[in-house]
Design goal:
about 30% strand; globular; about 15% helix; alpha+beta; six-stranded antiparallel sheet; seven-stranded mixed sheet
Length: about 550
């Protein structure tokens, strides 16, 4: 696909793909390319002669070209879930490999899934995955999952002769693999020789380290950081590591470089200055101060942002109201579509008022790793500790600032149960005065279905006295009751940085709910007390509370 897209750029034919038919798209591929598109998208092996049923959304505009070429026959059967009616195409395959083609060139989100059944009298069917390497094979029945990234959307109707067959679920993100029709995008903020999109994070101790990353275009060969302790003459220089980031469908800026540096052996509670050196270009002077380790500090946090540029316009106001924030947290859904670099460009441009000045620590939301795909762009941009469970390196992690433990947890792409052992070990070993967990899905709102969080993590939060759980996902403000003496339950707070949800909200008795968007939360910790305030776009209070620890 990338090879074909690069040819389209060379021929300056991007505009032709705004509205183009499947038949016209096929002319851009040679015989080998067509063979790959028709056979190598989905491959598995059967140990006996079998019927293979391709179930495709009836609302998809064009039938994938290879179905008729491979002599699949459209049946009169249909399969249904609550959102989609699928037509069924059938073909008998001999024992051996089954090779299937792409879903189409249109990025139709409800991609086809497959049902396989041994021909009568051919014995027990065994299916061996080839590509993708990992595939699930489950008995097909009412209630079967067909999309791993939307397990609640299950089958409600199947033909009777599917009984005894097996369903091979998929992910909706596979619709992107051959996307060409209406696929090309443009960024408002293309990269240049000038270093920009500075992001500060921590991958280690905030008292002695700081991570810096930024971007340039691909013409920049090397970058480095010059830094110094303020008031001292000595300057140190560190060469940056570089990463090539590609978004081949971003027509005016498909390739960029991001550079990153970790500054180490810094002194706690000390002010430093630094500049980015990019070829002949030297950036302005930036400053930072390391964590002193003291029990007095402030930080801010945001709910879902979705690369909303209005959110960026509000940042200077919130910064002016609360200038002492040492860093900012974000609970996921930074962008709408996690693999679109133009949306990261929008986000980072909007967030510049805080990114230029303070560290930014986040967790992924469902939009950051959308439709079951790995959040590769998220990890390219945001460098976080690899001290979490091995199943979620850089996605789940923890750090300590002042007297507080921050548990940053991925609940989108990583199983809650797979993180339990690691989470308990971190909590058991924590000596910090306050403990704050951060993740995307809010488990205690009226519309929540996240029973795994409640059943697996909440007992740990109670046992080890986690104080706050900061979440997002549903676009309004919600806080659980403050009465913690009997239950030892943390206070759960959900907020939103972009516009509020359209429909009315329902709030459980005793909880606080505010149907507003564009909110900012500020937390001040002072020894044994924690004070949190949430304000709207004008700086008006919508909620406020204080926790004091006496034991």
């Amino acid at each position: 696909m990338e090879k074909t897209i690069r040819k389209i750029y060379q021929r300056q034919q991007v505009d032709l793909f705004k509205d183009i038919s499947q038949q016209e798209v096929l002319t851009y591929f040679d015989a080998d390319g067509l063979q790959i598109l028709a056979n190598d998208y989905w491959v598995f092996e059967v140990n006996a002669d079998a019927e293979v049923f391709v179930c495709r959304d009836m609302n998809q505009k064009e039938v994938p070209f290879w179905l008729t070429q491979h002599n699949f026959q459209k049946t009169k059967d249909t399969v249904k879930n609550d959102n989609v009616t699928y037509e069924v195409w059938r073909k008998v395959f001999k024992k051996g490999q089954v090779q299937l083609g792409v879903n189409g060139f249109d990025r139709h989100r409800y991609v086809y899934f497959v049902v396989v059944k041994a021909l009568e009298g051919r014995g027990e069917l065994k299916i061996r995955p080839i590509w993708p390497i990992v595939q699930q094979v489950n008995p097909v029945e009412i209630g079967s999952v067909v999309y791993h990234d939307w397990e609640e959307l299950t089958l409600t109707q199947i033909p009777t002769h599917f009984k005894g067959g097996y369903v091979l679920p998929t992910i909706r993100g596979r619709s992107r693999e051959a996307h060409l029709i209406g696929a090309f995008r443009h960024t408002t903020y293309p990269a240049t020789l000038e270093p920009d999109q500075l992001i500060r994070t921590w991958t280690d101790d905030p008292k002695t380290t700081l991570d810096l990353s930024w971007r340039t275009n691909t013409n920049v060969e090397t970058c480095s950081i010059a830094y110094w302790q303020q008031g001292q003459m000595d300057t140190s220089k560190v060469r940056a590591n570089e990463t090539l980031i590609q978004d081949v469908l971003l027509a005016n800026d498909p390739d960029i470089k991001r550079f990153n540096v970790q500054l180490t052996n810094l002194k706690p509670g000390t002010a430093y200055g630094f500049q980015i050196l990019s070829g002949p270009i030297t950036s302005k002077v930036y400053t930072f101060k390391t964590d002193s380790g003291k029990a007095q500090f402030e930080f801010g946090w945001f709910g879902d942002v979705h690369n909303d540029e209005r959110w960026g316009h509000l940042l200077p106001r919130w910064r002016q109201l609360y200038p002492e924030a040492k860093f900012y947290l974000q609970v996921g859904d930074l962008v709408n579509t996690g693999l679109y670099r133009d949306q990261w460009d929008q986000l980072l441009h909007a967030a510049q008022p805080i990114l230029d000045d303070k560290p930014f620590m986040a967790v992924p939301g469902n939009h950051d790793s959308q439709e079951g795909l790995f959040p590769s762009m998220y990890l390219h941009y945001l460098k976080y500790p690899h001290n979490g469970p091995t199943v979620a390196e850089g996605l789940s992690y923890h750090f300590v600032y002042g007297n507080t433990l921050f548990l940053m947890l991925d609940v989108v792409g990583t199983s809650v149960s797979d993180q339990k052992k690691w989470l308990e070990e971190v909590l058991e070993g924590s000596k910090e005065r306050f403990k704050i967990a951060v993740f995307h899905f809010a488990p205690h709102t009226a519309e929540s279905t996240y029973t795994d969080i409640i059943q697996i993590w909440e007992p740990l939060f109670k046992k080890y006295e986690v104080d706050l759980v900061l979440t997002g996902h549903f676009h309004y403000y919600h806080r659980t009751q403050l009465n913690r003496e009997k239950s030892h339950s943390p206070i759960y707070i959900m907020s939103v940085g972009t516009k509020e949800k359209g429909e009315e909200i329902e709030v459980k008795t005793g909880d606080v709910g505010v149907h507003k968007g564009y909110l900012y939360q500020h937390v001040k910790i002072d020894g044994n007390s924690l004070h949190m305030r949430s304000v709207d776009s004008l700086g008006n209070n919508i909620d406020e509370f204080k926790l004091t620890k006496t034991n």
